[in-house]
Backbone:
């Protein structure tokens, strides 16, 4: 009875202490409900929170898990799901939360993850390392230390914690499988390992890649170093390999389409991902914010110090030193860290840092029995270590947690929600919303439940990025922005609704005749662009074939727009002018004079300009940005595309630019474009025809009349996941500007059906079905053939072969991931 009570208390203590520390930090930081602040900042706010809105919509029957019309012109979400842990079982939490409470509920959501990490670690320590009740205080400290440490306090907003919660269970089942279930039978520990590793593959592919690295490190040390004088567990190596491959096979229906989407993205298109040359290019890179690696290591400095000073010269300690060294080495050698990441990264170094924390805590715990023994003095020394560690964690948390304070100027979720109300039920892929002045971060459509091209979930294709850039929309790395462009390109892409902050000047004198006031909110003004959505546009096959011969585009975004406008609207609406200057002091102050003949919108595009302050007819031009609504410098981070300088009528215009310049003397350029809105609207009205359509979660049906020998242009992101039929017959889709969809039409009435299935999903489903059948068959055989049979002899023979293969794989892994990067770094830095 006493033992059960002690067990209950020790279990409850992990949850109570973890909760107490986390809530104490939230109270100190004034995080809701202990204040008005929330936990979501930086990428947690701009990427993960919007992704959770997508998850909420899917769980509540309002969206597709693998596709979303609202961003990117209709975007593949297979890769996004694997990048942002959208298939994590922790996300079932959103079944029980109102959509409007997602941001504020993060305190509970994160606490659940921390508790899962703590209890997973407790299970591993209690069952695998410290098996006696008298070590309860050390188990408690290690469990809480795994839940609350430098890694979790830095990266609490990332879905990587979901995988961190699985790691202790995965290692537990691996050890038990290797120790007790080395034969071919399917035991409960083997099944547990398969389930845990399958979840890792399903939840997050980048973390799965790093987890495979860790398993090779862990398994290699376990089989070759920890065995001491015992024979090599060759059958255990075979089972480790087979179950790992089986786990990947079971996850294939999610993993394969996600991996294809990620590998085909703009983000993974750089040279560092290409072969041997890319490998050595990667080794020469410098990491960002390397200090955070030391913070993660420093958060386990106390158990690491204990591990070092408690060492004795025992053979079993070789395995412990090996594992700790393997996980600590990337802190000292950035090249090793970059290989673990498989590429450079922006901020967030050592994204697998929980593995370092796990290794240090576990190996330190393994030293406790020998160090303490029956000595009260040593027990008290260890208590002192634990006390210092606890104080360190609280102090670290106070320093690292930087909550979102929700000021009037910066409230991303609140702003997105605010504009979503007047747009409710109005937008779709053919009637998109547009941030005219870049006043909100790019993922606002997922929160506002509106549709746009705007997106910042990283996994944009190169074609999406290229089209957005050549049309003069703002573009930063993997951000797909709807800010920029002209009235002509807005009509092409289906931008029906315009949103601008009241803090700036957009709309006061830039709105064309086609824009009608729609609504005003506390912080924003909204307009409706009348010509958009009521008309569809067509290209004859002859015109398209002539265009496709020379599809090249130039740095002149106005020329690019004219070329597409001629195809779609049969007019070239922009009269443009290229002005050059030198990159020296003569280019510091520029002045240009124009005359607006009739009503004209004047646009500017200058990617060469640097911190430019622009004045139009004596008035300073605002260039709002989601980081600074009152910004007056162009280009801005979120507003670097085409700028609308105003709408003018029969008047002189003076544009003055003051900017920072270098001393290269190189020729630079700034482009100006005049657009007659009335002339454009007349051309659009003449070129467009009516189309009826019906949208579903991942499909679309359209009906359109055609004279034949032409394409229907749709402002939809085109990738190979689309399946198209016209009047029941499958048709190949073509592309305009690399990304806009062109559907071939027949003469007469065309019934068009578009369905989206991510590339690789069908093959992945077939692999998953086979893997599940193999698992089921394995389970049945294990039940039927419990006695020794010929399978045991076959398995033993395969075990020898598997051991030989694993030796080669393991040696190659250590060479590529550790030896070469370390030697190369020493050669580059110190020789």
Residues:
């Amino acid at each position: 009875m006493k033992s059960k009570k002690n067990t209950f208390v020790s279990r409850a203590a992990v949850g109570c202490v973890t909760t107490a520390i986390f809530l104490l930090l939230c109270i100190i930081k004034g995080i809701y409900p202990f204040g008005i602040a929330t936990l979501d900042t930086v990428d947690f706010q701009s990427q993960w929170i919007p992704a959770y809105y997508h998850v909420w919509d899917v769980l509540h029957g309002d969206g597709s898990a693998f596709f979303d019309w609202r961003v990117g012109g209709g975007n593949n979400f297979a890769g996004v799901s694997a990048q942002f842990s959208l298939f994590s079982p922790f996300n079932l939490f959103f079944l029980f939360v109102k959509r409007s409470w997602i941001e504020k509920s993060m305190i509970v959501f994160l606490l659940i993850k921390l508790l899962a990490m703590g209890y997973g670690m407790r299970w591993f320590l209690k069952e695998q390392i410290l098996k006696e009740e008298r070590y309860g205080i050390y188990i408690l400290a290690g469990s809480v230390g795994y839940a609350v440490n430098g890694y979790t306090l830095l990266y609490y907003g990332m879905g990587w914690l979901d995988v961190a919660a699985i790691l202790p269970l995965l290692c537990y089942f691996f050890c038990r499988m290797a120790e007790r279930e080395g034969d071919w039978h399917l035991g409960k520990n083997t099944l547990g390992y398969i389930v845990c590793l399958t979840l890792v593959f399903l939840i997050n592919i980048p973390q799965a890649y790093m987890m495979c690295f860790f398993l090779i490190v862990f398994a290699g040390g376990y089989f070759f170093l920890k065995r001491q004088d015992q024979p090599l567990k060759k059958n255990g190596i075979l089972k480790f390999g087979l179950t790992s491959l089986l786990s990947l096979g079971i996850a294939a229906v999610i993993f394969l389409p996600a991996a294809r989407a990620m590998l085909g993205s703009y983000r993974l298109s750089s040279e560092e991902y290409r072969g041997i040359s890319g490998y050595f290019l990667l080794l020469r890179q410098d990491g960002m914010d390397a200090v955070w690696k030391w913070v993660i290591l420093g958060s386990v400095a106390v158990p690491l110090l204990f591990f070092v000073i408690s060492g004795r010269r025992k053979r079993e300690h070789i395995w412990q030193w090996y594992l700790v060294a393997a996980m600590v080495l990337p802190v000292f050698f950035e090249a090793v860290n970059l290989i673990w990441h498989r590429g450079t990264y922006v901020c967030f170094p050592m994204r697998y840092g929980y593995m370092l924390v796990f290794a240090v805590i576990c190996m330190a715990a393994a030293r406790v029995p020998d160090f303490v023994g029956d000595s009260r003095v040593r027990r008290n020394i260890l208590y002192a270590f634990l006390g210092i560690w606890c104080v360190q964690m609280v102090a670290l948390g106070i320093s690292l947690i930087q909550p979102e304070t929700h000021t009037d100027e910066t409230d991303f979720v609140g702003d997105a929600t605010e504009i979503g109300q007047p747009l409710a039920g109005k937008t779709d892929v053919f009637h998109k919303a547009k941030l005219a002045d870049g006043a909100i971060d790019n993922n606002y459509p997922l929160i506002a439940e509106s549709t746009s091209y705007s997106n910042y979930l990283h996994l944009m294709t190169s074609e999406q990025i290229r089209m957005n850039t050549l049309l003069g929309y703002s573009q930063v790395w993997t951000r797909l922005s709807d800010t920029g462009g002209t009235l002509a390109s807005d009509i092409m892409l289906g931008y029906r609704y315009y949103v601008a902050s009241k803090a700036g000047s957009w709309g006061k004198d830039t709105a064309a005749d086609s824009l009608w006031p729609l609504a005003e909110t506390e912080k924003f003004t909204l307009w409706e662009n009348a010509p958009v959505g009521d008309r569809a546009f067509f290209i004859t096959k002859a015109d398209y074939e002539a265009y496709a011969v020379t599809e090249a585009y130039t740095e002149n975004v106005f020329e690019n727009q004219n070329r597409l406008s001629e195809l779609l609207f049969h007019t070239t609406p922009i009269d443009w002018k290229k002005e050059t200057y030198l990159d020296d002091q003569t280019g510091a102050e520029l002045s240009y004079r124009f005359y607006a003949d009739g009503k004209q919108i004047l646009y500017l595009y200058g990617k060469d300009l640097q911190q430019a302050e622009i004045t139009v007819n004596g008035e300073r031009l605002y260039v709002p940005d989601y980081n600074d609504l009152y910004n007056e410098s162009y280009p801005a981070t979120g507003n670097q595309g085409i700028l609308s300088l105003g709408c003018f009528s029969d008047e002189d215009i003076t544009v003055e630019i003051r900017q920072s310049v270098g001393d290269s003397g190189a020729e630079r350029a700034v482009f100006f474009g005049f657009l007659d809105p009335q002339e454009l609207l007349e051309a659009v009205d003449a070129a467009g025809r009516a189309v009826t359509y019906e949208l579903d979660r991942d499909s679309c049906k359209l009906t359109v009349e055609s004279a034949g020998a032409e394409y229907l242009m749709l402002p939809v992101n085109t990738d190979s996941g689309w399946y198209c039929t016209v009047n029941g017959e499958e048709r190949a889709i073509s592309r305009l500007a690399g990304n806009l969809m062109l559907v071939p039409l027949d003469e007469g009435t065309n019934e068009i059906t578009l369905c989206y299935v991510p590339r690789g999903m069908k093959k992945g489903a077939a692999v998953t079905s086979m893997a599940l059948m193999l698992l089921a068959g394995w389970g049945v055989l294990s039940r039927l053939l419990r006695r020794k049979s010929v399978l045991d002899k076959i398995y033993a023979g395969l075990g020898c072969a598997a051991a030989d293969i694993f030796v080669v794989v393991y040696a190659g892994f250590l060479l590529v991931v550790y030896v070469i990067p370390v030697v190369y770094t020493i050669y580059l830095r110190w020789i």
Observations:
- Residues 1 and 299 are 38 Å apart (CA to CA).
- The chain is about 50% helix and 15% strand.
- The chain has a mean pLDDT of 90.
